[in-house]
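We close this part of the discussion by returning to an individual protein. The encoding preserves chain order, so positions in sequence and tokens coincide. The sequence in question and its structure tokens are set out directly beneath this paragraph:

===
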Amino acid sequence: MPSHLCLPHSLLSFMLLCLIFLLLITPLRHAHGHHERPRQNITLAIILPETNTAYPWAWPRIGPALERAIIKINSDPNFSENPNGICSESVAPLVAVDLEFAYKPWAFIGPGCSYTASPVGLFTTHWDVPLITAGAPAIAFLDGIYPTITNTGPTHKKLGRFALRICEHFGWREYVTLMFSDNKEDDRPCYFAMEGLYEELKSINISLQDSVFEENKPPINYSQILISCSSVINEMIF
């Protein structure tokens, strides 16, 4: 049996053209007035020799090109309903449930936002499935309610401990926190960052006084706020 196959040049050329066509095919949207065709998934059926590289069209030779084409198409924002995504505390748990029932994953990677990781983390705890995230820095994830969450990134509790060491080093026993009253939108990074600092310093019986202002409702007299703070305490943490 020959170690390689010889095919007519015309047949090889035709196969090459077919392959190029498959790699370049993309979802087409045809606008009819103000209406567009609904987006659809493209499913490719691959029927190729899996390991026999005696064939020039075997999977080890064709597969990388197809995988690269899929990655390129899926990463194109023109073909995505919402390429950037948002921190949705209503959508994230629904997606998690769908993934659990459809695929039974061994682990979940993300979400990263605190408000989305909270309900998903409760589900993964119930399912006894690990959830790994570089986000979700709020201190609530460290109180034992979410035993399956592993946080690989910095947390606000660690930030609070850092500030605590500074206070201990300089002998500060009182402090003032300046914060703004934000609405419950997106991931509230300032709110949760201040929460970590607030809770850690409160845990060692340091006196607390808050000066709250609404940053989105100008005009704000920052000078007057600082003067009011300085009349109460000499050390301030921002």
Q: What stands out?
A: Residues 1-7, 9-34 have pLDDT under 50 and may be disordered. The chain has three domains: 9-30+38-79, 91-151, 156-237. DSSP finds seven helices and eight strands in the chain.
